[in-house]
Amino acid sequence: MNCLLLASVLLAFSLAITAPSVGQELYARAVSNRLEVTEVKGFITFNQIEKTSSSVVMELSYKFTFGGSTDVVQKENLWQMQFFVSQNDDSTGDKRNLFTIYPENQSSTLKPNTQEHFEASKSIDFLEDYGPGQLFEFMCVTFSKHPQTDVNITFSDGESETLCESLPSLKVEMPPTEENRTCYFWGDPHQKTFDGYGYTHQGDYEYIGVTICNRDENVNEFEVVVDNFRRTPSKPVTYIREIRLYYNDVVYALTHLDDVSVDGVKVTLPYSDAENGVTIHYAAPHKILTTDFGLAIRFDNMHNSAITLPVRYRNKVCGLCGNFDDDRTNECHYRNGTTMGVHNEECKHDHVKEWEINRDDEYPIKPDLRTCDEGSHILNMAVASCGILTDTEGPLANCHEYVDPETYFITCVYDLCQLHPKMYFLCSSVETYVDDCQRASNWETEIGDWRSVATACVPRCTENMTFNPYGLPCPPNCADPDGVHTSCAIPHLEMCVCPEGKLLDGTKCVDPEECGCKMENGRYLSIGEEFVAGDCSEHCTCEGRGNLQCGSMECAENAQCSVKAGVRNCYCDDGYMGNGREECNKTGKVCRIYGDPHFHTFDEDSYSFQGDCTYVASRTCGDLPRGLTHFRVLIHSDALNSEERFTYLTQVRLHFKHKAFKLYNTGEISYEGRDIANALPFDDGSISVYRTGDIVAVTSFGLKITYNGENDAEIFLPPDYFGHVCGLCGNADGNSTNDKQKPNGTLHDVRISYFPTTRLKNLNSQILGMLETALNMMSLWRPVRLEPKNMRELSIYAPVCERSPVHLLIVTISRIRDSLLTLVSLIFVEHCPLLTSSAQALSPTSGHAQKRAEALIQTGRVKLNTVGPRPVPKDTKTLDSHVTSLSQHLETSHLQK
Question: Hey, what's the signal peptide range on this chain (predicted)?
Answer without folding.
Answer: 1-23
